[in-house]
Amino acid sequence: MLMLFVFGVLLHEVSLSGQNEAPPNTHSIPGEPLYNYASIRLPEEHIPFFLHNNRHIATVCKKDCLCPYKKHLEKLKYCWGYEKSCKPEFRFGYPVCSYVDMGWTDTLESAEDIFWKQADFGYARERLEEMHVLCQPKETSDSSLVCTRYLQYCRATNLYLDLRNIKRSHDRFKEDFFQSGEIGGHCKLDIHTLMSEGQRKSPLQSWFAELQSYTQLNFRPIEDAKCDIVIEKPTYFMKLDAGVNMYHHFCDFINLYITQHVNNSFSTDVYIVMWDTVCFKEAVFSLLPRMRYGLFYNTPLISGCQNTGLFRAFSQHVLHRLNITQEGPKDGKIRVTILARSTEYRKILNQNELVNALKTVSTFEVQIVDYKYRELGFLDQLRITHNTDIFIGMHGAGLTHLLFLPDWAAVFELYNCEDERCYLDLARLRGVHYITWRRQNKVFPQDKGHHPTLGEHPKFTNYSFDVEEFMYLVLQAADHVLQHPKWPFKKKHDEL
Question: 81: burial class by Cβ within 10 Å (0-12, 13-18, 19+)?
Answer without folding.
Answer: buried
